[in-house]
Amino acid sequence: MAQIRVENLRKSFDQFTAVQGSNFTIPDGAFFALLGPSGCGKTTTLRMIAGLELPTEGKILLDDEDVTFRRAAARDIAFVFQLFALYPHFNVAENIAFPLKCQGMSRREIGERVQETARMLRIEHLLSSKTSKLSGGDRQRVALGRAMVRRPKAFLMDEPLGALDAEFRHLMCGELRDLHDRIKATTVYVTHDQLEAMSMADQIAIMNKGRVEQIGAPQEVYDRPASMFVADFIGSPSMNFLRFEGGLRSGDRAIRLEDANVAVPEVREDRASGSLVLGVRPEHVRFSDGAQVRGKVFGAEYLGTTQIVTVDTAHGRVAARLPSAATVRIGEAVGLEFQSERLTLFDAGSGLAIR
Ligand code: ATP
């Protein structure tokens, strides 16, 4: 397996720059997700790593070896487009064997490799079955087997579960992660679905308009977002943004909102007066008499064990995740209190977190 490093990677199509100078290192054996909205440059980044697109600038290194100008077939990387694309007239063994046949490998060696791959995927009992008779999950395993059988240095996957319905996709996320834990193959996984990235990846790179805004473990990007874009993109419902005017001094541990002090994690830099944003996740808001912000209940959405209650305040609409047993009346005047150590401050102009 391999470490993948990307240095100052840029890609322009005529006047338009799709990838604006990315830098990241994917450790050997890691599951790395490229996450972001449609058009942010995920697929273009992946295609450059695969060798299907030539960078305008920058380098791609596989295990410290510069492969920027090496053609795709010589990179020893498997690109998995769509996990369900199998050859219907072949049985499972023939489907898995196909890439090795194309390489001209001997029959004996192909047989051994197919057996080994099937064992890893736990589909040995299906080897002589027609793929058209398989369940969705087994088809996915066969498609993965076809990518694995070449023993590539890394797997690149572009929205492989995109065509599936939500429930099945969730199931397959668990399968893919389980498989990754067993074979420990370096994997780069492109998705616009934050839940897929959060549930599977060791590290997530969040992209916006061709730039990587933050790279971190799922919990890190959720708890300590580097920007309002990241904070907004990750989490459902999204983080609340409460705008206010004020200045900050290094060492401050509170901000002033309405007539109340709101304790915040210690500020590390001075910030002259200006527009600031307090970021609060819905699960860190509660109703309280000793409130920091006052408002009126706008609506409530029942979700089973919890409910999302929206409250209109002078700083905008705030969503709170409350136990579903809490009694809430539309139009009721309520006070909100925030869990201080979980708050994030942002500069409203740049959108960047103030730490
Ligand atoms: P999606 O999930 O919609 O595929 P993405 O994040 O993968 O989005 P890319 O496919 O990398 O985004 O595309 C990034 C931008 O580059 C888009 O605006 C797209 O239109 C543009 N682009 C991609 N390929 C080309 C090309 N061959 N020629 C011109 N523009 C391109």
Blueprint (SSEs and pairs):
Elements: E1 4-13, E2 16-26, E3 31-35, H1 42-50, E4 57-62, E5 65-66, E6 77-80, H2 92-103, H3 107-121, H4 136-148, E7 154-158, H5 166-183, E8 186-191, H6 194-200, E9 203-208, E10 211-216, H7 218-223, H8 228-233, E11 240-248, E12 254-257, E13 260-263, E14 271-280, E15 285-287, E16 293-302, E17 306-313, E18 316-323, E19 333-338, E20 344-347, E21 353-354
Parallel strand pairs: 3-8, 3-9, 6-7, 7-8
Antiparallel strand pairs: 1-2, 1-4, 4-5, 9-10, 11-14, 12-13, 14-20, 15-19, 16-17, 16-19, 17-18, 20-21
Helix pairs in contact: 2-3, 2-4, 3-4
Bound molecules: adenosine-5'-triphosphate.
List keywords for this structure.
single chain; 355 residues; alpha+beta; Rossmann fold; 2 domains; binds adenosine-5'-triphosphate
Computed Rg: 24 Å
Helical element count? 8
Question: What is the name of the CATH architecture of the largest domain?
Answer: 3-Layer(aba) Sandwich
Taken together, the total number of domains comes to 2
Q: What is the mean predicted local confidence, pLDDT?
A: 91
Through-space gap between termini = 37 Å
* Main pleated-sheet profile: 6 strands, mixed
Order of neighbouring strands in the sheet with most strands? 6-7-8-3-9-10
Q: CATH superfamily of the largest domain, called what?
A: P-loop containing nucleotide triphosphate hydrolases
Query: What is the multimeric organization of the chains shown?
Result: single chain
| Percent of residues in helices | 10-25%
Order of helices and strands: EEEHEEEHHHEHEHEEHHEEEEEEEEEEE
In the CATH hierarchy, the third-tier topology of the largest domain is known as Rossmann fold
- Overall spatial form: elongated
Task: Name the beta content range.
Answer: 35-45%
